[in-house]
From TrEMBL:
<dbReference type="Pfam" id="PF07277">
    <property type="entry name" value="SapC"/>
</dbReference>
<protein>
    <submittedName>
        <fullName>SapC-related protein</fullName>
    </submittedName>
</protein>
<dbReference type="InterPro" id="IPR010836">
    <property type="entry name" value="SapC"/>
</dbReference>
Length: 237
């Protein structure tokens, strides 16, 4: 459990954040939420798929960084040097939260249990006068940008769903030695449904700039084999 606390220039005047490429904080998260801007770069190494919240019906775009729940194959140690990564990886230990249900006001929260939070080394959050440092301002801008793009991505996924382009997919992964692992609960773009769209609906996707995202997603499914190999390597250590 993380301890998220609203950032305060009095209580947290001496706090600093260390820059780190150690992503073990995600080692138990095999599906990482994405924003639309992540699709094309992430598709070069990871499968980009969709999952559905059965209670709300909302779809979320995610990168598969593991085959089995609770195991991120890339973040088990601090040696991973990513060429691409989800935008959300750069948020921790800060996060953005809605003040309350009846307001659009937000506050920046900080995970005080994060090993990235110190009082010694790192980037200061506040100066001696209690004002935000340029570092904190930049981090806050990033949080706002990712949050806005996440909301845009949610609208995109719902639009795809409204056009009946998302279809349930069950994957059977070959892990060698006659071992297969079934992954259920994933959704992908139905190519037949995409090709069967009316000209107007297809042009609508094009005009909204969604076709590159769709094609990136479809091509990313070839990365499943890469993930299977990493699982086999992990299992045979």
């Amino acid at each position: 459990m993380t301890q998220i606390t609203p950032l305060n220039n009095e209580q947290h005047a001496n706090l600093k954040i260390m820059n780190s490429t150690d992503f073990r904080r995600y080692k138990e998260q095999h599906l990482i939420p994405l924003i639309a801007h992540d699709f094309i770069p992430m598709a070069s190494e990871f499968s980009v798929v969709f999952v559905k919240n059965e209670e709300t019906g909302q779809f979320t775009a995610v990168a598969m960084m593991g085959i089995k729940p609770g195991l991120n194959l890339y973040c088990q140690d601090d040696k991973w040097e990513p060429s691409v990564m989800p935008s959300s990886f750069l948020k921790s230990p800060l996060s953005l939260h809605i003040q309350d249900e009846n307001s659009d006001d937000c506050f920046v929260g900080i995970d005080l249990d994060s090993p990235l939070v110190t009082t010694e080394n790192g980037q200061a959050l506040f100066n001696s006068e209690g004002e935000q440092t340029d570092y904190l301002k930049a981090r806050t801008e990033h949080l706002l940008d990712v949050t806005q793009k996440y909301e845009q991505t949610q609208k995109i996924t719902q639009h795809l769903a409204s056009k009946r382009l998302l279809t349930h997919k069950k994957l059977n992964i070959n892990l060698g030695k006659d071992e297969k692992y079934a992954i259920d609960g994933l959704y992908i773009i139905d190519e037949k449904a995409l090709n069967a769209l009316s000209q107007d609906d297809f042009n609508d996707l094009r005009d909204k700039g969604l076709l590159p995202l769709i094609y990136a997603h479809l091509s990313s499914m070839h990365q499943i084999g890469r993930l299977a190999k990493k699982q086999i390597q992990f299992d045979t250590k």
